[in-house]
Write a structure and sequence with these properties.
about 50 residues, mainly beta, three-stranded antiparallel beta sheet, elongated
């Protein structure tokens, strides 16, 4: 009986590709509930901007 298996470690790193996407941010001057600045990333996250 012969067992054949494929391991992730056996694969070459050159065969895999990594997609790198830049994250961009846009600042809204009155984007928050209290009228403050709000930064929104291209990934969909929002951040409050402090002074």
């Amino acid at each position: 009986m012969t067992l054949y298996y494929s391991s992730v470690l056996d694969e070459s790193l050159d065969s895999s590709t990594i997609d790198v996407q830049r994250t961009t941010y846009e600042v809204f001057e009155k984007g928050s509930k209290r009228g403050g600045k709000l930064s929104v990333s291209s990934a969909g996250f929002t951040y409050g901007v402090k002074v």
